Amino acid sequence: ILLLIRNPKDVATSFYHFTNGMSPLPSYETWDDFFVAFMTKKMPWGCYFEYLSKWNKYADDENVMTITYEELKENPVLGVKNIAAFFGISLTEKELQSVVERSSFQLMKKNSQKTHGAFGNVLFRKGGVSDWKNLFSEDHNEKMDKAFEEHVGGTKLGTKLKYELYCKA
User: Would I find Oxidoreductase among this entry's keywords (predicted)?
Assistant: First the structure.
């Protein structure tokens, strides 16, 4: 199992734009309204912190590889190599480069109308890291940090995400 996790602040930011772009989902007039719903577990897909907490039980399982979105963005070649090795797939250098190129956010966004139809623009918005800094106030940041610590701060997944959040920022 490949478990891809992401900075919860960017998860919230991404979901905010996603829900406001998908008519079947509830939309939010303001970021503050969304943030309250996100932090009080009122999302249609549940609580991200609880999701991480549940997956943490399997973090040491040899059949589970955890990788962060941030790791893949920072070094996609290494990420693909590690994923291929985990699944026992050997890739030539040409195949490796092809996978990296074809799985890049830029190419997936470019092809999103073909691959995902009308939802392509909603699913592939920016694909960046740290976009949360454009929405979060200091209060939002403090509340998210506190919830993170309460739910997953000392766990293996929490430590992995914390490194991505604070040591590489």
Answer: no
| 34/132 Cα distance (integer angstroms) | 13
Specify whether the CB–CB gap between 49 and 157 falls below 8 A.
no
Q: Quick one: DSSP state of residue 2?
A: E
The residues, ordered by sequence, that sit 6+ positions from 21 with a Cβ below 8 Å of its Cβ are 121, 122, 125
Q: What is the pLDDT of residues 135-158, one digit of tens each?
A: 999 999 999 999 999 988 888 888
Give the pLDDT confidence of 10-68 residue by residue, as tens digits.
Answer: 999 988 988 877 777 778 889 999 999 999 988 888 899 999 999 999 999 999 999 99
Residues 6+ apart with CB under 8 A from 57: none
Q: Topology of 2-168 in CATH?
A: Rossmann fold (3.40.50)
Cα separation, 42 vs 10, in Å, equals: 17
Tokens of 123: 């699913």
61, 156 contact by CB (below 8 A): no
Sign for the CA dihedral angle at 76, 79, 81, 87 comes to negative
